[in-house]
Amino acid sequence: MKVSESEGKLEGLATAVTPNKNSSCGGGISSSSSSRGGSAKGWQYSDHMENVYGYLMKYTNLVTGWQYRFFVLNNEAGLLEYFVNEQSRNQKPRGTLQLAGAVISPSDEDSHTFTVNAASGEQYKLRATDAKERQHWVSRLQICTQHHTEAIGKMMSHAEGQQRDLIRRIECLPTSGHLSSLDQDLLMLKATSMATMNCLNDCFHILQLQHASHQKGSLPSGTTIEWLEPKISLSNHYKNGADQPFATDQSKPVAVPEEQPVAESGLLAREPEEINADDEIEDTCDHKEDDLGAVEEQRSVILHLLSQLKLGMDLTRVVLPTFILEKRSLLEMYADFMSHPDLFIAITNGATAEDRMIRFVEYYLTSFHEGRKGAIAKKPYNPIIGETFHCSWKMPKSEVASSVFSSSSTQGVTNHAPLSGESLTQVGSDCYTVRFVAEQVSHHPPVSGFYAECTERKMCVNAHVWTKSKFLGMSIGVTMVGEGILSLLEHGEEYTFSLPCAYARSILTVPWVELGGKVSVNCAKTGYSASITFHTKPFYGGKLHRVTAEVKHNITNTVVCRVQGEWNSVLEFTYSNGETKYVDLTKLAVMKKRVRPLEKQDPFESRRLWKNVTDSLRESEIDKATEHKHTLEERQRTEERHRTETGTPWKTKYFIKEGDGWVYHKPLWKIIPTTQPAE
Predict the structure, then answer these.
(1) Helices (DSSP H) in 546-656: which residue ranges?
(2) Rounded distance between C-alpha atoms, residue 42 and residue 464, angstroms
(3) Per-residue b/e over 294-306, b at no fewer than 16 CB within 10 Å?
(4) Chain-wide mean pLDDT for the chain?
(5) DSSP 33
């Protein structure tokens, strides 16, 4: 990056350069500064910037090793360039590093080696002839790096001033007329300029953090600075009924009559209810979401909303327009994790601890694709405190048996055929039943608890999730803070796991969803673990929805299975014996859940609670949906004020707070004794 004279004038640059006589031997270094004599060995330390050049050894790779290369420090451009030799200096450089935001670190290996870590992630490992020569290169590089990094900061401040002036000029325009402040093109300019500056500021902040971290001590190999993953202690955030502003969708049941006293509505049916599985029927609701039409019609609303947001802003308290809502609650979306109950039940069928961990990873990676009901990224309803969702699945035992896979079929492709009508009519002892219940247990922060169990196979999963949304410029990120525990009581094993982040990308055009981040699965008893990485798409090239995973036996540090592919397409499992299996998610049969009809549901159950909003959205009556949603919000605020005034604590229905998490009130491990099989 070239800097102007006013922001950084290069001092003491000589017009003549005296080559070092020893440069051909790799031990010389020259400078264009007049503060030093013609001899390369007669230099004096100074704080001003110098153009420095000379031979250094550069580490290439394990095969090639160290090689002499001719390096040039271009202070004016803020570049470190290298050539094969001094004679090729007039040709195109073999390599170039931008020094703005770079970190220059002397190595602990010896007194001659140092590294140049560019902000792009590229690294040069270099070696000087002796300690003095290394010190000279390091000090000159650090001065140049600091100068150009500060210049970026000054330019950022200048650009921010111009951007603020642009926003002010747009907002000062009249709201009507030929050129108004609500003109769609101006709103686009306002939103994109704000997002661009926010992203640039975030990048600059990351450079500063990276620079500070390296100055305190070199980061371990492979360390990355995350954009979104907040390291938050949960213990100070789980406070129900906090006296704070309310979020958009934190709302009150519509089924409670308006004339009913608030005190009664707040305590309605707060005792746990035993759901009769016979009351549940196969779900016939169509959850497919509409295409882009409604989004394009409301484009100016989105632009105006984006222009008000700041990078990193918590969206929990931001009023979002109704038309971007998905026609179901977040609690119901969590139930989609169980859309393949056969894979869930098959985990406990594994003959060994290794097999069971691999089966869990297979179930985990196939549990995300059903969560999206359309190509457009839409937001499910924010559950209100006390909202619940119930459903179940009846799985024919014969179908589970056919889904108990073996790793013995090399190059096999796993496809689940749709369940036959005869299989689906099996009842009683011929079927396994998987029950699911979810409850919104906290309002600030928004925390959901969900629990699923298969009593016949003595297995259950309990999880709590705090969804934390943030504005990231031209996208929205949702961090899933929390933990889940799968209990296999037949084996006395517990598997702890976390969830990835979700991102809504391209929110100004056609929004789409991707997952990102690293998650872990651990079984303390067996010593097996899994590390799973959901890869976000890079700016240039790369595949969408890519995921990789490793299953490892920690005691022996042995990788027993590797996984790669896309979490919504095809997954490839490669085992330690070299055999491979493919799972095609596009052909994987999805088991429909069973739910009670609306008339049998509690007023706090998701579908009955949001019925009016859902019906209006289905009919594309956005204004009517907004009105129903507003009614729910106002009732929620009224009920919250009443609890605050009377000092009445909120009482959860199905989940109990334990430490930093939430646990179902009647988990299987409290009812069925855990089996301790002989090893």
Answers:
(1) 606-609, 611-618, 622-646
(2) 67
(3) bbeebeeebbbbb
(4) 76
(5) B
Q: Which residues have CB under 8 Å from 51's CB, separation 6+? A: 13, 17, 31, 32, 33, 72, 73, 74, 75, 76
139: tokens are 């000090």
CATH of domain 312-404+429-670: 2.40.160.120
Q: Is 311 left (phi over 0), alpha (psi -120 to 50) or beta?
A: beta
* Rounded Cα gap, residues 344 and 340, in angstroms: 7
pLDDT at 425 over 70: no
Between 214 and 83, the higher pLDDT residue: 83
d(CA 507, CA 509) in angstroms, rounded, equals: 6
Q: pLDDT, tens digit, for every residue of 249-280? A: 334 333 333 334 333 444 444 678 888 777 88
Q: Render pLDDT for 462-503 as a digit per residue (tens, 0 to 9).
A: 999 998 887 776 778 888 899 999 999 999 999 999 999 988
- Between CA 497 and CA 502, with CA 498 as vertex, the angle to 5 degrees is 145
- Cα distance between residue 181 and residue 173, in whole Å: 5
Does residue 417 surpass a pLDDT of 60?
no
- Residue type present at position 457: R
Give the bridge partners for 517, in sequence order: 534
Residue with tokens 């009445």: 648
Strand partners, 97: 80
Residue 154: name the closest of 297, 259, 28, 6 by CA.
6
Read off the pLDDT of residues 292-335 as tens digits, 9 standing for 90 and up: 444 555 555 566 566 666 656 666 656 666 666 788 899 999 99
3-state secondary structure of 381: strand
Per-residue pLDDT of 586-630, as tens digits, reads 888 888 899 999 999 999 899 999 999 999 988 888 889 888 888
Contact between residue 466 and residue 237 where contact means Cβ atoms under 8 Å apart: yes
Give the whole-angstrom CA distance, residue 354 versus residue 69: 50
317, 352 Cβ separation under 8 angstroms: no
208: left (phi over 0), alpha (psi -120 to 50) or beta: alpha
Question: What is the pLDDT averaged over residues 168-182?
Answer: 82
Q: Output the pLDDT for position 287.
A: 61
Fold exhibited by the domain 50-175+186-210: PH-domain like (2.30.29)
**Which residue spans of the chain are classified as CATH 2.40.160.120?**
312-404+429-670
Domain limits, CATH 2.30.29.30, in the chain: 50-175+186-210
Residues 448 and 499: their CA atoms lie apart, in Å, by 13
User: If we measure between CA atoms, which residue out of 26, 25, 70 comes closest to residue 52?
Assistant: 70
* Predicted pLDDT at 290: 56
Q: At 644, give phi and psi (nearest 5°).
A: -65, -45
